[in-house]
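Troubleshooting: if your tokenizer reports a length mismatch, compare your output against this known-good record of 433 residues.
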Amino acid sequence: MRVLGIDDWSWKKGQIYGTLLVDLERRKPIELLADRREETVKAWLLTHPEIEVISRDRGGAYAAAAKKGAPQAQQIADKFHLLLNLREKLKELMARKQKLLPQIEVTTSKAIADKARGAPSACAPSSSSAPVGGSKSFRHMSPDPRVTPSSSIPIPSAETPSQISRSNRSARYEAVRTLHQQLVSQREIARHLSLSRNTVRKFLLAEAFPERSRPPYRGSILDPYKPYILERWKSGCWNGAQLLEEIKKLGYTGSDALFRYFMTHVRKQHQAAGTALALELSTARGSISAPDDLPPKPSPTRRMSPSRASWLCMCQPANLDEHQRSLVERLRTAHPDLETAYHLSQAFVSMLAEHRAQDLDDWLLQAKQSTIREFKSFAQGIRRDHAAVKAAFTSKWSNGQVEAQVNCLKLQKRLMFGRANFDLLRLHVLRRV
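Known-good structure output:
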């Protein structure tokens, strides 16, 4: 065995991990270790002095174990993990600058059944308000919503579940910032406030309270029939059972609960507006609204997510369409730091794709001299692992084959072999050797 690939695998995700060792030339696993500690990997490497090349991820434990257990071997950092680390830093930067990210239009999904799309009268109001078919008789109903004892007292708008959730999250944000100003470590803050360290770190990196964006409206199977329902409602048909019977004959195949939820909203808006003629169908969320109080927005927008912004910064312009390139231009002009981050990201991706290892030191100097702390941190991590990262620019070896073997290991683990003990799982993984 000359070329070794090493990676971890999860026995219990987030808690217990093992180590998988793969012969990259033969493309087969050669050993399975019960943990991923530095001492365990080092002890195994000391028994195999024939190893010349070790491909690994950016984990510090594997780097230290390879340095002590196989000093004669050349270490190679995996290219995929290098790009993954870069994008993680980009996402941190975009989350910190979230208020500066451009607004983009929301595109709703067409989650409508084919039968509903082909309904001839779904989008056209009926000229008659008589019941369809004539076989059933429906009683006259009031347009006001039914009032039960539990709902007779309205809940103030400041005490709705969404407002309560936001106020609680804002209080946690302020508590994290206060403890951080008192020089309390992130680990202690997470333990004291019962938060994850990722949440604490996100709060500390944000320049302002990170608001949760409202998810875009994804469409409903009831959407084609809402204009018909609203027209019948304006004509004086306020019986929900009758309207449900009518739209079912027009092709509606959705649930009764979805229809009742929409009708409850119609009745509440009717009661608030005082007249049915003032009601309109909002194209933004597929709901009923009064035009004086809440005018419909023809093109709803939302803030670009940090994940998408980081993806656009790492994609080469030749692989983007015209709309995506326009988003990149808007992103770059939003702030000087975003412009610098885009240039640094594009330079690193191109440098890695074109195997220009000689330009790595110049790029690290530019990242260090920038005012972006995320890129400074990324550059410091590369300098600590400089030899392995530089070898990744010219070597043909990577951890792609190791990741494939990890997927095969997960399958065997879930086929009950991992339920018994580690020894049985190891035998089934290594039986192909």
